[in-house]
Amino acid sequence: MLLKGAFKDSSFFIQLLMFFSVLAMGMIGAIFISSIFILFRFGFSPETLMQVQQNLIDYPDLIRGVQFFQVIGVFIFPAIICGRLFSDNYKSYLKIDVPVAPSTIILTIVSILVAVPFLNLTYVINQQMVFPEWLKGLEEWMITMEESNALALEKMLYADTIWIFFINIVITCILAGIGEEFIFRGVLQNIFGKVLKNPHIIIWSAAIIFSTIHLQFYGFIPRLLLGAYFGYLLLYTGTIWIPVIGHFTHNLFHLIINYIYQDSPKMFDETAAIGSGQTGWLSVVSFALFVFLFWQIKKRAALSKGFSS
After folding, report:
1. How far apart are CA 271 and CA 254, in angstroms?
2. Which of 118, 120, 236, 285 has the least CB density, counted as fewest CB within 10 Å?
3. Which uninterrupted H or E stretch holds 246?
4. Are 195 and 205 in contact (CB under 8 A)?
């Protein structure tokens, strides 16, 4: 490839600029392909295209299609392109060529599942965020974005057939898990590593961007914590596939819960509140178990590298 490793020795700012440039190009490409997809579905009319795009919420199948193209165009392809631009070996750069221990996979999956009550508590706390009067405009904008994203997600995830449920798994669990981890942990943490030597600062910096870019501010804290955890999984295991598996597990769990209770909003809300209120004690147990499992993952990873933690 002509540009292979062309920017591997470039400064932090140049690489960051290239990173966002590639993401912007990927977004433009995704929007273009999504528009073609809509045109093929509804006819080649600019008026129709504009009307459908403005009312996309009414077309769940189109939301899935657009989401598919966005995950590919904004996350997966840009991650591979950046990996080629910033190194001579994109597989090594993204840490996708490191073998994964089965025991670490199991511990990662279980750690995500046991963390659910604790993450539910952080979500409930996050929901209680209140802005001062002088930031009411920002608060109203955040609420509008939150409601809009939640409605779009609800429409997209509603599955009246097992086939749609399977499609949702592919888009929101497999592709999103791979794409987002490749970009935020695989590429962004590498870029931050050019100027930040403290791995904790690198991980939390990438996690902040990871949570912010979702534009779901009333779920910012739990997503931030998850992003940081995925960053630490990469740091200690040395393979991108472990945070990918963690990301996949988290998304799949919530997708299954959504599928089970999609026609029972009250039951869904009660399930999402486990770990808060009268069940607050579960969040304490949840956090303790999570810390223990995380310690086990770190310990096993250290032993596999030939030194003790």
Report:
1. 10
2. 285
3. helix 241-260
4. no
Give the span between the Cα atoms of 224 and 183, in whole angstroms: 15
Per-residue pLDDT of the chain (309 residues; tens, 9 = 90+): 557 788 888 999 999 999 999 999 999 999 889 888 877 777 666 776 677 666 767 778 888 888 999 999 999 999 999 999 999 899 999 999 988 889 999 999 999 999 999 999 999 999 887 777 777 787 777 777 777 777 888 888 888 899 999 999 999 999 999 999 999 999 999 999 999 989 999 999 999 999 988 777 778 899 999 999 999 999 999 999 999 999 999 999 999 999 999 988 888 888 988 998 889 999 999 999 999 999 999 998 887 765 443
Q: Supply angle C-alpha 159, 143, 249, rounded to 5.
A: 40
